[in-house]
């Protein structure tokens, strides 16, 4: 899409990253959605849920298998949806959320939305939140997960992160969105039910933190076209940079990568 500012490719390697990231986030937050959502919506009986920017559909497929009586719709601007295996309660469509959401008012019980930090410009967050608010039923829920920049770490990690952040700013995007999203959701009309920030530590050797280290490496890999020149690297040097980033992320002072899960509700 020529109007998209999204950084990452839609190739097989990126799909693998999104699948790995899905399960890492599920483990980090102990579930696909905050527990309080289950007190408000009856997923067993059946609700209608939209996954915005669903990518290869990992979140949807996971949820749809768990809640066969609920209806799931996934939209993404790229057709990277699963073709062979698709539960009966799942549909996908190609659509760019920035053109408005192709759904009627008050038509969904819940909207899920993850990691749009690389997809939106600063001034696109609020209009999109208002669109999400519009298509939710009264009492409907909006679940968002957003990431921070890579924080702390040694000089090398800080340098790489600062270049990344600077590129976002130059492209009129919002590097600090994870700390601002709660306020934007409120401005769009949502009541905030929960807002939880989790820290990940890519230097630590446990399985979950290793998953996030792998994720960070592959984000930097996918963003090569936007970062390479600004890091002062050639195409030939970039793989070495990625390996060094992984090595430096495991040194002290340890870096941190924050992810914020926010649940909002449209008032009844």
From TrEMBL:
InterPro entries: Methyltransf_25, SAM-dependent_MTases_sf
CDD domains found in the cross-reference section: AdoMet_MTases (cd02440)
Any one Pfam family match given in the protein's UniProt record, by short name: Methyltransf_25
Domain Methyltransferase: 49-140
Protein name: Methyltransferase domain-containing protein
Taxonomic path: Eukaryota, Fungi, Fungi incertae sedis, Mucoromycota, Mucoromycotina
């Amino acid at each position: 899409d020529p109007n998209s500012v999204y950084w990452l490719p839609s190739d097989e390697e990126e799909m693998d990253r999104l699948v790995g990231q899905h399960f890492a986030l599920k483990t980090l937050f102990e579930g696909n959605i905050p527990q309080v959502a289950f007190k408000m919506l009856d997923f067993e009986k059946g609700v209608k849920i939209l996954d915005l920017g669903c990518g290869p559909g990992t979140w949807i497929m996971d949820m749809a298998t768990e809640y066969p009586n609920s209806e799931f719709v996934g939209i993404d601007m790229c057709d990277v949806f699963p073709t062979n295996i698709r539960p009966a309660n799942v549909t996908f469509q190609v659509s760019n959320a920035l053109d408005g959401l192709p759904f009627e008012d008050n038509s969904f019980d819940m909207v899920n939305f993850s990691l749009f930090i690389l997809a939106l410009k600063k001034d696109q967050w609020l209009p999109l939140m208002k669109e999400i608010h519009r298509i939710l039923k009264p009492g409907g829920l909006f679940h968002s997960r957003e990431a921070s920049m890579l924080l702390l770490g040694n000089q090398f990690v800080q340098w790489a992160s600062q270049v990344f952040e600077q590129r976002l700013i130059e492209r009129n995007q919002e590097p600090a969105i994870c700390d601002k999203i709660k306020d934007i959701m409120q401005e769009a009309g949502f009541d905030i039910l929960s807002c939880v920030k989790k820290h990940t530590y890519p230097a630590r050797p446990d399985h979950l933190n290793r998953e996030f280290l792998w994720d960070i490496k592959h984000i930097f890999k996918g963003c090569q076209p936007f970062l390479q020149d600004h890091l002062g690297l050639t195409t030939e040097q970039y793989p070495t940079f990625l390996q060094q980033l992984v090595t430096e992320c495991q040194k002290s002072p340890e870096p941190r990568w924050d992810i914020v899960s926010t649940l909002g509700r449209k008032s009844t």
